[in-house]
Amino acid sequence: MSDGISRYAAPIQYADVRRSYNGARVLGGIVVTIAALSLWQESVATVPILLAGALVVTTQGLWARNHGSSAVPSLVIDATLVGGVSMARGFSGGVEGAGFVYLVVGSLLLLPLTQAAGVIVYGALWAIPIALVGPLVEIGAEGSVVDIGAVVAAAVVVARLLYATGQALFTAEARHREALEAEKRAVELKDEFVSMVSHELRTPLTSINGFSDTLRESWSQLPPNEVDEFLLIMRGETQHLSNLVEDILVIPRLEAGRLRLEPGIIALRDEAYEVSRLVFTGTTREVQIDIPADIRVTADPNRVRQIFRNLLENARKYGGDQVLIAGELTGESYKVVIADNGTGIPVEDRERIFEHFEQAVRGDARSEGVGLGLPIARKLARAMGGDLWFEPRFPTGAQFLFTILSAPDDEAESAAASEDTVTPIRRTG
Asked: Which residue has the higher pLDDT, 413 or 50?
């Protein structure tokens, strides 16, 4: 089916040359108008016909520059004008030859083969009434002027059409190359994604499998503290797998705009404490959280934790030994800052890191993960009415900032008052 469609499609897309093609027709109509007006003083009988035809072509050409999806109406109108003028003034060869050449070139370039054949046959059929009526009309002295006007008008339109065709073909070729490059890049990204995900899944699964076999075979012989250590490691690897799967699954829902959000009034500091405790357990990082306890925001708590997790894991992998989580009110939003004192991010990579499967470190030096954390965090923030971006930290380090909608004062006070107890979360550090 696709082969058949492409075989009979027009060589170029009409939409690509519509403005330039009909602009040339307008110019051709002006040329014919000038030729007709030059004969006005001689009271030539064909002048009104020429002027009326030129007015029709010019008016329709102006309209067709921005309307219509096919060149058929324009070509039919032009063929009708040539045939009508030839019948009115008799056959001379100049008007008819120039008009037929234009009709053939325009039809073959702008129309599918079957439509082009139909328009050309329509133009050729005008030869019958011209042959019958033409001999009865005597061509006057104005014949050469009309012929010259017709040839110039046809030449203008054909030249412009050929030029526009060349431009359209060049643009189409460029689009084709871009499409091939995009397809090649998509294949590379898919292969890279499969490779990275396979590695990320294999590592924790191997760890879980090894520790579970050890526990199964030697449970009774292992000291209790060692059993607890093995179970803690297995739990951490399981959580890592769960986070990876959640990040992978959320991508198509975000891209399709079908991610279901369940917003509520949440205490932002509690979320920051809980996620930082999970991410930095077992590390020597000094984590400082400077978000007031009374800050309430309107957001999906699961997605807020996902944003925190991805940003804090990024700080754990690439930051230094200090992490700061702070924030401030900015209008109707609350701006959160997650800063570290690491080496920072080079200027050329500050937007690339927000693309899928990209990391701040390339090649063999890549860290754990598949390069999804930052783009997912940004899209989640935007899906909840905020945004997420990067800024350098002075004198060294990186900081990622995101905004989230603040809860209205009355709702925030109601949510705070409804909390029966507050369980303190130990400061991580």
From this structure: 50
Residues listed for the chain? 429
Write the pLDDT tens digit of every residue in 332-355: 999 999 999 888 888 888 888 887
Contacts of 331 (CB under 8 A, 6+ apart): none
CA atoms within 13 A on the CB side of 22: 25
One DSSP character per residue, 262-314 reads --EEEEHHHHHHHHHHHHHTTS--EEEEE--TT-EEEE-HHHHHHHHHHHHHH
* Structural domain that includes position 209: 196-255
- Cα–Cα distance measured from residue 184 to residue 192, given in angstroms and rounded to the nearest whole number: 12
Residues with Cβ within 8 Å of residue 254, at least 6 apart in sequence: 376, 379, 380, 383
The answer as to whether 24 is a domain residue is: yes
Assess whether 124 and 222 both reside in one domain. Answer: no
The torsion defined by the Cα of 211, 216, 218 and 221, in degrees rounded to 10, comes to 110
The CATH number given to whatever domain includes residue 389 is: 3.30.565.10
Whether 327 and 268 have beta carbons less than 8 Å apart is answered as yes
Residues 112 and 227 in one domain: no
Question: pLDDT tens digits for 356-380?
Answer: 655 555 444 445 555 677 888 898 8
Phi, psi dihedral angles at 209 (to 5 degrees) = -65, -45
Residue with tokens 């399981």: 238
When divided into structural domains, the chain yields a total of 3
Backbone phi and psi for residue 343, each to the nearest 5 degrees, phi listed first: -80, -10
Kindly tell me if the per-residue pLDDT of 424 is higher than 60. no
Give every CB contact of residue 79 below 8 A, 6+ residues apart in sequence: 99, 103, 119, 122, 123, 126
On whether residue 217 sits in a domain, the answer given is yes
- For residues 157 and 14, state if they share a domain: yes
Q: Give the pLDDT confidence of 218-247 residue by residue, as tens digits.
A: 888 888 888 888 888 888 788 778 877 877
Residue 353 belongs to some domain of the structure? yes
Question: Mind listing the pLDDT tens digit for each residue in 129-149?
Answer: 877 776 555 555 455 666 677
Residue 95 exposed, middle or buried by CB count within 10 Å (0-12, 13-18, 19+)? buried
